[in-house]
């Protein structure tokens, strides 16, 4: 081996060692993503109680041992999925500050939000069941709501009483979630859609200080 090739080999060794943990981390994330996709598939086809780890790992092409490397339980996997699909500080809720500038914009945002619940109805029904019986999932939902509140700094920063403003936003978001679950997910209550949107927009507009 020539001096130059020896030097090159010595230089590449640390680089290869640095890449190895990175590749392991990427593989771990891909495996976790595949497992969560399998959890979503299963919960879109059955209720939470009937979903099994065996079926999840079969869909993911993984083993039970691999599942438990990433999640301590089915409940923890459901909680992770809830966090993954909730449009908190990304996507839908990122557009809310702009929507709050006009009453018409707010109404359009509420309509889009109901549409999101409709497009995820089967999954949300299963996750709602999980929240009712699993504290881990319910806690993750509370974290997601808090992230939604944090996604509205324009409103919070201009509030005379930030603590009261936070509680007001929490109430609005939680009430909206329950209305969406009752009307478009479980369909236990079927008011006229346009009337529902008008009334929700009016309540939000007043609560958030619209002119």
From TrEMBL:
Origin superkingdom: Bacteria
Recorded GO MF terms: DNA-binding transcription factor activity; transcription cis-regulatory region binding
Gene3D superfamilies: Homeodomain-like, Tetracycline Repressor, domain 2
A Pfam family recorded for this sequence: TetR_N
PANTHER family given in the database record: HTH-TYPE TRANSCRIPTIONAL REGULATOR RUTR, MYCOFACTOCIN BIOSYNTHESIS TRANSCRIPTIONAL REGULATOR MFTR-RELATED
Region of interest called Disordered, as start-end residue ranges on this chain: 1-24
Source organism per UniProt: Streptacidiphilus pinicola
Record keywords, A-Z: DNA-binding, Transcription, Transcription regulation
Protein name per the record: HTH tetR-type domain-containing protein
Keyword Transcription in annotation: yes
Record keyword Transcription present: yes
InterPro entries the record matches: Homeodomain-like_sf, HTH-type_TetR-like_transc_reg, HTH_TetR
Compositionally biased region (Low complexity): 1-22
Ranges where the HTH tetR-type domain occurs: 29-89
DNA-binding region: 52-71
């Amino acid at each position: 081996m020539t001096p130059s090739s020896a030097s090159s080999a010595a230089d590449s060794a640390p680089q290869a060692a640095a890449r190895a943990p990175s590749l392991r981390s990427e593989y771990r994330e891909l495996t976790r993503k595949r497992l969560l996709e399998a959890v979503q598939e299963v919960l879109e086809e059955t209720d939470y109680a009937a979903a099994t780890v065996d079926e999840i790992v079969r869909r993911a092409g993984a083993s039970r041992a691999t599942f438990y490397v990433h999640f301590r339980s089915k409940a923890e996997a459901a909680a992770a999925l809830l966090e993954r699909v909730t449009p908190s500080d990304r996507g839908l809720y990122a557009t809310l500050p702009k929507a709050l500038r006009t009453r018409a914009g707010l109404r359009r945002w509420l309509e889009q939000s109901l549409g999101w619940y409709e497009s995820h109805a089967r999954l949300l029904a299963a996750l709602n069941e999980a929240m009712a019986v699993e504290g881990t999932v319910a806690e993750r939902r509370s974290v997601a709501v808090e992230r939604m509140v944090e996604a509205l700094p324009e409103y919070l920063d201009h509030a005379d009483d930030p603590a009261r403003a936070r509680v007001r936003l929490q109430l609005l978001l939680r009430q909206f979630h329950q209305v969406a679950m009752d009307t478009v997910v479980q369909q236990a209550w079927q008011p006229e859609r346009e009337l529902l949107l008008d009334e929700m927009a009016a309540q939000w507009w007043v609560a958030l200080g619209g002119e």
